[in-house]
């Protein structure tokens, strides 16, 4: 049965912001989500049992306890949630995931932040970040001055399906699109998402020194998952331009 199984009822949240961390291009969302969970020592708040989520068990280093592949972590102090995923989610399954989560979002008054990489050949410049929104999310973007995209495009993969669901059901959602390496895990793109997107939208300062210092370690640790995402394009969240007059 589809459900969000809350594990810690002692956590008190008020209209939290939830950062989505599904694997995608550059593993931008995955790296950012994992970093937030670690940086704030977030509580394993809930397990996600939704149709379309692979029925596998996950184990972690130095911990004998098994967990579900998609989980929600919470930080009561900063009124923040993180959706952490250790497996790819197919777009069709993401629609089921969105439907499964939507009632819980309404009950908890959650505003989701969806993260997507825009495949870009690496340069020495800081990756550019753009923001999009559904529902009342546009007002929130205007309040913090985040830039809109400078060209037409689309967001595909599971994050695209989740954003589509928000549009279709007139729900509030925000999407953060950042230039990222299409071939390798991209901690720098995740740093930009955190500092330029998540921080202003949540009002929470996130330490990223460890993310920068461990960039090579993170790339190596995530490389196998990145290769898997490249081999399964439809499961890989990404933004792409629609140049209609070229």
Automatic annotation (TrEMBL):
Region (Disordered): 224-246
Gene3D superfamilies tied to this protein: PAC-like subunit
Source superkingdom: Archaea
One Pfam family matching this protein: PAC2
Coiled coil: none
Name listed for the protein in its UniProt record: PAC2 family protein
UniProt source species: Halogeometricum rufum
